[in-house]
Design goal:
The protein is α/β, with parallel strands linked by helices. 40% of the residues lie in helices and 11% in strands. The strands form 2 sheets. The chain has a 4-stranded mixed beta sheet with strand order 4-3-5-6, sandwiched between helices. Strands 1-2 form a two-stranded parallel ribbon. The N and C termini lie far apart (43 Å).
């Protein structure tokens, strides 16, 4: 731990964490003994031709205070128009945001474009609106669940956690892959707790998909997620993204190798208790 309570840099521990497996190839390219610089992160983005929602090459720049009331200086607007992603040196949250941009550039670019368009559409209105809420939930806490068995996707959507992760554990290992996109989830993974819940986009894939290398699979899921968010109705409700208690995923913690782990109703909760009207 550092003086401020944040985890100290330990690349080997990051690479070995199952919760950070989605970005493991990128972690392996970071310095072994220190946080990466903004220039090093920008180089990785340039190698993959990462672009903002406005088509501008993405570069990670020092975070500075925005000019009060300056619409053009807003975080999403600046990224869209300039490609400049404000990034705090030494910030785990911002580091994982940068890695998400590099690993899922199409999805992050679409999210940025849709934020930009919604902000122009609703400029001057007091509420963000449901569309931006959906985008933010996925951007911060999103997981893509690639699934080759519709019955497993049905169990996830129905909150039947124990049946999914315990009774059909072998099927989940064989026919599902969980890829973390949300940088807040990756940050929490540094010191995870049982109640951590992500927002999940289920993507149906054929079984042969899982023969792909991780980089190829991530690229495919990146394309699918980006296409999802521009589809009609994708931003109509925050409930379009399924809750996922991430420590229930087989292999993500040794604690879930016990059946009793899934008997905690405070974490593995049943479905929606009541209907909730979305804000316009």
């Amino acid at each position: 731990m550092t003086d401020d309570g944040a985890p100290a840099w330990d690349r080997a521990a990051l690479i070995g964490s199952p919760l950070l497996a989605t970005v493991r190839p990128l972690l392996e390219r970071l310095p072994p003994d220190r946080f990466p610089s903004l220039d090093e992160l920008s180089l990785l983005a340039r190698e993959r031709d990462v672009r903002s929602g406005g088509g501008v090459p993405v570069v990670f720049v020092p975070a500075t205070a925005a000019r009060t009331g300056a619409f053009e200086a807003h975080y999403e607007i600046r990224i869209y128009r300039e490609g400049a992603v404000p990034t705090r040196a030494g910030s785990w949250h911002d580091l994982f945001n940068a890695l998400a941009w590099i690993e899922f550039p199409r999805t992050k670019g679409v999210i940025n474009r849709l934020h930009h368009d919604q902000m122009l559409l609703r400029r001057g209105e007091p509420q963000r609106g449901t569309a931006r809420d959906v985008l933010t939930l996925f951007d911060e806490g999103g997981v893509i669940a690639a699934c080759a068995d519709a019955s497993l996707a049905g169990l996830l959507a129905a909150f039947r956690w124990k049946e999914l992760f315990w009774t059909r554990r072998a099927d989940v290992v064989a026919a599902m892959r969980f890829k973390v996109v949300g940088h807040a989830i990756h940050e929490i993974a540094l010191a995870p707790y049982k109640g951590v819940t992500a927002k999940t986009l289920v993507v149906e894939v054929p079984p042969a998909t899982f023969a792909l290398a991780d980089e190829e699979l991530n690229a495919l899921l990146d394309e699918r997620a980006a296409a999802h968010f521009v589809a009609p109705g994708a931003l109509a409700s925050t409930r379009s993204l399924h809750p996922l208690p991430i420590l229930g995923v087989p292999g993500w913690t040794s604690a879930n190798e016990s059946e009793a782990f899934y008997d905690d109703p405070g974490v593995f909760r049943p479905g929606w208790s009541r209907e909730k009207k979305e804000a316009p």
